[in-house]
From TrEMBL, chain A:
This is N(6)-L-threonylcarbamoyladenine synthase. It comes from Lipomyces tetrasporus. It is found in: Cytoplasm; Nucleus. SUPFAM superfamilies: Actin-like ATPase domain. It comes from the Eukaryota. Its EC number is 2.3.1.234. The lineage of its organism: Eukaryota, Fungi, Dikarya, Ascomycota, Saccharomycotina.
UniProtKB/TrEMBL annotation, chain B:
Belongs to the protein kinase superfamily. BUD32 family. It catalyses: L-seryl-[protein] + ATP = O-phospho-L-seryl-[protein] + ADP + H(+); L-threonyl-[protein] + ATP = O-phospho-L-threonyl-[protein] + ADP + H(+). One of its GO terms (molecular function) is protein serine/threonine kinase activity. GO terms for cellular component: cytosol; EKC/KEOPS complex; nucleus. GO terms for biological process: tRNA processing; tRNA threonylcarbamoyladenosine metabolic process. It comes from Lipomyces tetrasporus. The keyword ATP-binding applies. Residues 15-288 form the Protein kinase domain. Keywords: ATP-binding, Kinase, Nucleotide-binding, Serine/threonine-protein kinase, Transferase, tRNA processing. It holds the Pfam family Kdo. The lineage of its organism: Eukaryota, Fungi, Dikarya, Ascomycota, Saccharomycotina. This is EKC/KEOPS complex subunit BUD32.
């Protein structure tokens, strides 16, 4: 489907290799943009390869920076080779090497940045450093065709409500403490749930079996949310239950861990939908785009869809290939910047754990 | 463009003629000519001490159920927020602060009745005056600044002092903007302005929408409240915002606690925090 989104013209197709490793997923992607004119419909980008390898820890454990970095170092060469093979391209076909410059965990970011620098020098291709959040947003827009949506970016490390204005993705609301995915992951650890394929997905499965709603703290402050109090509270309840102090629902039944997963999702997703709705009312937008790993959650998508319907709007979401961290989104956002002339010199290719979404000049949009 | 708006409980919409005048993210605002339970026309002198102008009509603020969230959570939030807003509104009204006077609340249904404030918002009023002043004077006219000072300054001083009264009671508004301050004709104007006085009648500011208000003793929260208003001035009245903010803060400092010793100490602390909040830039920019 040709997209209506306007982009600066390019006179020949471009291809980018993208490397992502800001958390426990290592992703390598190859994308192609076709030649396009300034106005009129343009062909969608072509995804030539999208390969991911996830570092999975045993139940009850999170991923530590050092071990995660080691995982990325071990697999990055294999993944790049696989990506090239899948795409059927040779290094000569590639225009630029894009990598995640931040935000994320320091050690994993660094190991992937080293890989990117090495490839760039070996193949003599320019480097393009990409903001991870902008990668998510641009990929979501490309896949769904959402033109100018309010973006809810929810993952293990980030929780932000974002809207575009004057060549920046501006943050309207965000978490005041931990990210929503982090809250879910840590609760999964409390319950000793498997981290395979992801703790959040296993919570979602358990939540589907939950029936009783347990009242939890609800913390929305203006357009911001806070998660830490909720986690501390529900951890307490879970520990009570596992140490033989059952809690009872109003109908006399014992509260199960499925009920807790259900209640946790209901509460924190309601908070997210509320701040998203507030941002939509503020900027007068009818579209909402959900990106980030937590964005795969069906219940969150459903709740958002109900809210959007009542505002005569629409919700856009992608599936796990593009929601969860991947190399293709870094390649896509990097290629957009590359086409406007942006390059990252070797000296400036240092990565940073703190890299705010609104620091990036969105030179490829002029609406 | 017209979604299925959540409907008011039919018992109310059948009994009274209500017009939807605003639809926010959380609440709908309805206007009614009739008082919700006192028959109109009002018997003379019945509730004149609480309703400043019965002819201005009444406002119903309705928080409809949000179908996306669990019904138990929804009921809890609606009840809690409606009740909290009503409490704050009533507390401020009793303390003599200019807010719409509170009439009734139904926390479970998410309904608050209050009086209507018949007048323009501060935003519109400033826009009107600015256009008027620009029409009278040429570009870069010296008189222009003079006229602006004469006409806008007294009002902004009283806006500042009204916010100070609010903060002195340890209530922070949470969403201070120039559209959340309405202006109504001053009740004192008749006596004060002489027959041939050239001075403009200064309306009195009324602060509305306490949906995000909360109790707080922290200077930080009050400073953020002022900072949010400052940002609102900068984004909606960019050209002269500096002077406007200065006048509001002047009125704020003068009005805070009316010279009580403890108040002087407190207001200094708030101003210091405001500088810190400004420097911090409050992490995000609220450009719509």
């Amino acid at each position: 489907m040709p997209s209506k989104q306007q982009l600066p013209a390019i006179d020949r197709p471009t291809v980018a290799l993208g490397l992502e490793g800001s958390a426990n997923k290592l992703g390598v992607g190859i994308i192609r943009h076709f030649a396009r004119r300034k106005a009129g419909p343009r062909p969608p980008a072509e995804i030539l390869a999208n390969i991911r390898h996830t570092y999975i820890t045993p139940p009850g454990e999170g991923f530590l920076p050092r071990d995660t970095a080691k995982h990325h170092r071990t697999f990055v060469v294999k993944l790049v080779k696989d990506a090239l093979k899948t795409s059927g391209l040779t290094p000569d076909d590639i225009d630029c090497v894009c990598f995640t410059q931040g935000p994320g965990m320091g050690a994993p970011l660094q190991s992937v940045a080293i890989a990117a620098r090495t490839i760039s020098m070996m193949w003599d291709k320019p480097l393009v450093g990409v903001n991870h959040c902008v990668g998510h947003i641009e990929m979501g827009r490309e896949i769904t065709g959402a033109n100018n949506p309010v973006v809810l970016y929810v993952s293990g490390g980030n929780t932000q409500v974002i809207a575009y204005s004057h060549q920046r993705y501006r943050i309207f609301g965000e978490t005041l403490d931990m990210a929503v995915g982090n809250c879910l992951d840590r609760f999964a650890r409390t319950l000793q749930i498997s981290n395979d394929p992801s703790p959040g997905y296993n919570i979602e499965l358990l939540a589907k079996k939950g029936k009783h709603y347990v009242e939890l703290p609800y913390t929305v402050k203006g357009m911001d949310v806070s998660m830490s109090g909720i986690l501390a509270y529900i951890d307490g309840v879970a520990n009570d239950i596992s140490s033989g102090n059952p809690r009872y629902a109003e109908d006399g039944e014992i509260i199960t861990k499925e009920d807790l997963c259900f209640s946790l999702q209901e509460t924190i997703f309601a908070m997210l939908v509320e701040i998203t709705e507030r941002a939509m009312a503020h900027v007068g937008s009818q579209q909402v785009l959900i990106v980030g790993g937590v964005g795969c959650n069906q219940r969150l998508q459903d709740m958002m869809a109900i809210m959007a319907r009542d505002r005569a709007g629409a919700v856009y979401a992608t599936d796990e290939r593009f929601c969860i961290d991947n190399g293709i989104m870094i390649a896509h956002a990097g290629l957009l910047a590359y086409e406007t002339g942006f390059r990252t010199s070797l000296d400036d290719s240092v990565c940073t754990q703190r890299f705010r979404t609104d620091e990036v000049l969105i030179a490829w949009r002029d609406d | 463009m017209s979604p299925d708006l959540p409907k008011l409980p039919s018992a109310i919409s059948n009994a009274l003629e209500l017009t939807l005048i605003s639809q926010g993210a959380e609440a709908q605002i309805y206007f009614s000519h009739e008082h919700p339970f006192i028959p109109s026309p009002l018997p003379a002198g019945t509730i004149t001490s609480t309703i400043s102008s019965p002819s201005a009509g009444y406002i119903l603020k309705y928080r409809p159920p949000k179908p996306y969230r669990h019904s138990a959570l929804d009921a809890q939030l609606t009840k809690h927020r409606t009740l909290s807003e009503a409490r704050i509104l009533y507390k401020l009204f009793l303390a003599g602060i200019r807010v719409p006077s509170f009439i009734a609340v139904d926390p479970r249904q998410g309904l608050i009745w209050m009086e209507n404030i018949d007048g323009p918002s501060l935003k519109k009023w400033i826009w009107m005056l600015e256009a008027e002043i620009e029409g009278q004077h040429g570009e870069g006219d010296d008189d222009e600044a003079m006229t602006r000072q004469e006409s806008i300054k007294p009002l902004l001083l009283s806006v500042g002092s009204e916010i100070a009264k609010l903060h002195f009671l340890d209530i922070v508004h949470g969403d201070l903007t120039t559209s959340n301050i309405l202006l109504r004709e001053s009740s004192r104007t008749g006596a004060e302005s002489g027959a041939d006085s050239p001075k403009r009648i200064v309306p009195e500011p009324v602060i509305i929408d306490f949906g995000l208000a909360q109790q707080s003793t922290l200077p930080e929260d009050k400073a953020v409240d002022l900072y949010v208003l400052e940002r609102a001035f900068i984004s909606t009245h960019p050209v002269h915002s500096e002077a406007y903010v200065k006048w509001v803060l002047e009125g704020y400092v003068a009005g805070f606690g009316r010279g009580k010793k403890i108040a002087v100490f407190k207001v200094k602390e708030i101003m210091r925090k405001l500088d810190a909040v400004r420097l911090r830039g409050r992490k995000r920019s609220m450009v719509g």
